[in-house]
Amino acid sequence: KHHHVCKSQPTLRLSPRLQQNLTHANKKQTKMEEPLDLIKLSIDERVYVKCRNDRELRGRLHAYDQHLNMVLSEVEETITSTEEDEETGEEIVNKKTRSVGMLFVRGDIVVLVSPPLRTS
């Protein structure tokens, strides 16, 4: 005898580029009902993602889920680290940047998501 357990599947929202057959209801809406709707409005747009361990990402958002797992493309990753100059005791800030074509971001490292911040 089989017991079928019906679990509700988590919804993964895909960009139109990845899924051509989106129904009108799933397309960008200006109505906001829950916090993740703000991210829904950023599908196919460039976003800024601040992560744990002084890591920052800027890229185009293609998909996300309720855990804030994300798929980004055209990503620029910046990692900031600090060290102390042994002679002067001054703090030295190092920034390392790399470009990544496509990146899966695990939601548990995400601190903040916003439209890209202009940095001069």
Keywords, separated by commas or semicolons:
single chain, 120 residues, mainly beta, six-stranded antiparallel beta sheet, 1 helix, 6 strands, 4% helix, elongated
Describe this structure in words.
- The chain has one helix and six strands; from the N terminus they run E-H-E-E-E-E-E.
- It is mainly beta and 120 residues long.
- Strands 1, 2, 3, 4, 5 and 6 form a six-stranded antiparallel beta sheet that branches.
- The N and C termini lie far apart (65 Å).
Main β sheet profile: 6 strands, antiparallel
Oligomeric state of shown chains: single chain
| Share of residues in helices | under 10%
> In DSSP terms, counting alpha (H) and pi (I) runs of 4 or more, how many helices?
1
Secondary-structure content class: mainly beta
Number of strands: 6
- Give the distance, in angstroms, between the N- and C-terminal Cα atoms: 65 Å
Portion in strands: 35-45%
Estimate the mean pLDDT confidence.
Answer: 83
**Rg from alpha-carbon coordinates:** 19 Å
Summarize the structure.
The chain starts with 12 loop residues before the first strand and ends in a 6-residue tail after the last strand. The chain has one helix spanning 36-40; strands spanning 13-14, 46-51, 55-64, 70-84, 91-105, 110-114. With 120 residues, it is mainly beta.
Task: Summarize the topology.
Elements: E1 13-14, H1 36-40, E2 46-51, E3 55-64, E4 70-84, E5 91-105, E6 110-114
Antiparallel strand pairs: 1-3, 2-3, 2-6, 3-4, 4-5
